[in-house]
What we know:
Blueprint: E1 12-18, H1 25-34, E2 47-58, E3 64-76, H2 84-90, E4 96-102, H3 106-121, E5 131-137, H4 145-165, E6 172-174, H5 180-196, H6 201-215, H7 226-242, H8 269-276, H9 307-311, E7 328-331, E8 351-354, H10 358-371, E9 376-382, E10 386-391, H11 400-416, E11 423-429, E12 433-438, E13 442-447, H12 452-462, E14 475-478, E15 484-486, H13 490-502, E16 506-515, E17 518-523, H14 531-551, E18 556-561, E19 565-570, E20 574-580, H15 586-595
Parallel strand pairs: 1-3, 1-4, 4-5, 5-6, 7-14, 8-10, 15-17
Antiparallel strand pairs: 2-3, 9-10, 9-13, 11-12, 11-18, 12-13, 16-17, 16-20, 18-19, 19-20
Amino acid sequence: MTDEFIPREIPRVRVALFGPSNTGKTTFCNMLTQHEISKIEPTESARIIEILRDYKRRTVMGTYETVTKYKLTLVDVPGREEFKEQRTKSLTKIVAWIFFYDATDPTSAENLQRMIREELEKERMLKSAIAMIVVGTKSDLGPDPGAVKIGEEIAKHLSKKTSSLYGYEVPHFLISCLDSEDVNLAFLCIERINFELKLPEDLISKLKRKMEKYLEKPPIEKPVPPKIIEQKIEEQQITAIETPPEAPTEETKEGEIPIPPLPKLPEGAEKQLEKLRMEIPPEEQIPEPPVGIPLEETPQVLKEAEIKAEASKIEKMEAPPHTEEHVEIEITPRESLIGKGVPPPEAPHRLIELCETDFDWALANSLYSRIGPFSKIYVVDVKPDKLLVAYDNRKRELGKDEEKLLLGLLDAVSVSETITERPKAMLIISEKLYAIILGKKLLIIQTSNDIIREICSILASLRSSEQETSLAVPGKHVTLDISLEMTKQKALIGLARNLQQKIRGVSSCFILISTNRKIEVAYSDQKNLSKKQIELLEKILTLSKTINEAIGKHRVIIIYGLYASIMILNGDKGLLILTFTERIPSSLINVISKVA
């Protein structure tokens, strides 16, 4: 991109990616600008990447609005010592710095510390700096405590400048440059500091939580080169052969038994020791992270349109005929809402394979480009014995955590089909937002909670669709080790009735409170629960448990059915369940979006 196409009034921000070699600077840059990982050679000259970018600020309502457009220039500098001159020449007019070190290697952190001291501070290159952060990379491999400690020292040292001039301390995080969320969170952090001159507490809290998870991983054991081991063995042998025993000194304590001198080795002993020397195996190389699946050219099937229009295409996809009937498997839960049950048998193994349909990949990629960089999109074709998956970036490899997530959400979908007639979509709110659209295939969107209202509007509109879903998901029925009893607490019963009367469209309200080995139920309409209502509540408890196992504790679940929708709110002591025969009021969605 050349300057002639960029109006002069657009702000210009130059951000330096600075650190020793092999710390992930180029990977970070590619993931941020191209949303992909490719095979990378060591950088031998400065790379200048220029893009137009929107700076967005969070509104009072929890959404994001564009404040300004600006020209972002990323300066990715080589980290090797021999390229020092090229490195310093390219670092001009830098206003934001991202300092990189390898969190698995203390030497890398020491090199960054030295480079800052000897290159940047010595030449006064930080005088124009406004925003700074320090990141330790490769944290998914297990960070080294020594390296992390040096990283903290670097951040504290740099904070002397920022705290006196701008009133903030330089943050320090652990990230993986192979994780798009880590990359985007780190860059949004430096972006917000640059434009607002204060720390973005919401982003920092997310990065700190991820940092705690990385610190739980044990550091990798780096093999010692064979030559060093051989040298140490030779030194020990020479010492044992040639070093004469020390004579007892006067400092020997009273009562201490003196060590007798070692006998001299007979002639030829050295040759025998040489024969008995341990063979040192060759050094094992640590495998490089996967570079992903080669990207084939995806046809531009999708035109610029609203997310709603694209999402609805999933219902029109052709699905292969299912030869197996729907089967429910009785499983006792690992742990009920209260108390423990018997461990369940292993569920049938279901293979996950990559989809070969270009349209599925194009749909996932197009939705990803519209929803944002924090998102992950999956199009899942459910077969009797396997799942065919297309997702947002064909170059990256589908991770094990993602496979576990997809299988867990598939179980949740199977349970939801028993709760309401002809479910069309499901929304799950936890630390992230999960939107699942049920059609001929599954469309799964994982994104941040900032767009709850927009997603809810899209999912609610799908409810009116008469398109029949032909998704046959073999699921599991969980027998809960609990009993449901009507509560005698008048306050709970009154609350259930008030909620039904005051929230528009609510047909019934249940409040479930867990106590010792039972669940007390407050119901808005009757004093006693029918058999059908008990079955409904058991299925909802099963769904709640299944989702907790798949993604962690959820806050809200909404199932959009053809004739009724169900909202499940998960509190510390139990569940609040609201059933709707009409569309869920937007005012209630607004409240939920603020809480989330």
